[in-house]
Amino acid sequence: MDLFVIILILTMMLIIVVVFATLYVQQSGYLQEIQTKLAKIDPQVVEKQKQAETLRRQRLEVVDPLMLLEAEFHQGIRKTLDEMELQRIADARDRVMAISQQLRDLGDWLGPPYDLEWPDYFERLPEIKAVYLKSAFGQEQVETPNEANPVALPPATSGS
């Protein structure tokens, strides 16, 4: 009896997986047909979407190495930037700003959280930002987040 129940449960699970896989394949086929029909109606829209996707991929290719560099700083592997890395950050800034403008020109700018400006990306790299500002602009008052003083919370007030 126990073996029968186990086989029954496994059979039901297999049927459910097969049903969902079939529905997924059908839905993907329908979406592909719709995309093909839309491409025939207005090929410029499809081309514009492809351009926007390409620009977003290019932006990721520019930002990803900076994220890896930020991880090295966070792990304590590095503490300074050399001249080549300073130039790479400046080039990344220029490229991200250019890509953002191209997306706006295409009319495909989605805004945050999908499309970010360079300052938004730079804020996500706090340790690189601090070291970059020290190195590039000689700002000695800038501290890295690991060295920064904790922010004091305002005193709690009673609600009475």
Give the structure's gist in a few sentences.
The protein has 160 residues and is mainly α. The protein contains five helices and no strands.
Could you characterize what this model shows?
- The protein has five helices and no strands.
- The chain is an all-alpha fold and 160 residues long.
- It has two domains: 33 residues; 100 residues.
- The longest helix is centred in the first third of the chain and has 40 residues.
- It is flat and about 75 Å long.
Shape call: flat
Which spans have pLDDT < 50 for at least 5 consecutive residues? 141-156
Q: What is the radius of gyration computed over CA atoms, rounded to a whole number of angstroms?
A: 26 Å
Order of helices and strands: HHHHH
> What is the count of structural domains?
2
Largest beta sheet, briefly? none
Please work out how many helical segments DSSP would assign: 5
Number of strands: 0
Oligomeric composition of the shown chains? single chain
Distance between the termini: 66 Å
How much of the polypeptide forms β-strand, as a percent range? under 5%
Helix-and-strand structural type: mainly alpha
